[in-house]
Amino acid sequence: MNSNRNTARIAGLLFLAGTVTALPMSFTESIVNAPNYLTGIAANSTQVLIGALLGFLAAVFSGSIAISLYPVLKKYNEALALGAVGFRLLEPVFYIVNIIGILSLVTISQDFVRAGAPAASTYQIVGAVIQAARAYASYAFGVSTFSLGALMYYVVFYQSRLIPRWLSVWGLIAATLSGASAFLVMFGLKPLSPFFTVLILPIFFQEIVLEGWLIFKGFNPSAIASLSAK
């Protein structure tokens, strides 16, 4: 029981750490995705670099969540627990590609400002290619792998009753919506647009509730006891 309680607490703390380190990335993305992003990045390079560093930490924490849950979830459905680990380990790879793109834009933006108007179009073309690659890596493939991994462990949560079923159902619906946002990005939906944000917000709030539940409540003791009895 103590082992399961510790597992729940560690998973909750990883969810919390991922949320805290990912939040500054939203401010970084607002600069990086602005219409005059090259000028904006050059003027706010320190803030962008700090956001990228925190984004890297968020990617590491995200990949660690399913690993921390695996020892408990595999007892109820090993295939889905393993699948969740696989997809959530792919997720940070795509986020790191996004971060590399942001770091590249910092260098390009500084060169863009120094070069002046005659060479501006060259830097804008390179910047546009990096922006497209970032969007697909983070908002299409990163969010889709996150959503698939989340769906898998929420199915196990629902089956096992390790957390309240209302929280599992909320997670299933929210992960489906976030997966839909990733799918739509592939077909032209702009990342961080109002509609994209509406699709993402349910999983954001659900994971805040989930991390609090895991830290303070832990897994359902009756679900653990039921498995032990079997």
Automatic annotation (TrEMBL):
Pfam families reported in the protein's UniProt record: DUF4386 (PF14329)
Coiled coil spans: none
UniProtKB keywords: Membrane, Transmembrane, Transmembrane helix
Keyword DNA damage: no
Keyword Transmembrane helix: yes
Alphabetical list of InterPro entries matching this protein: DUF4386
Chain ranges passing through the membrane: 46-73, 85-108, 136-157, 169-189, 195-216
Name used for this protein in its record: DUF4386 domain-containing protein
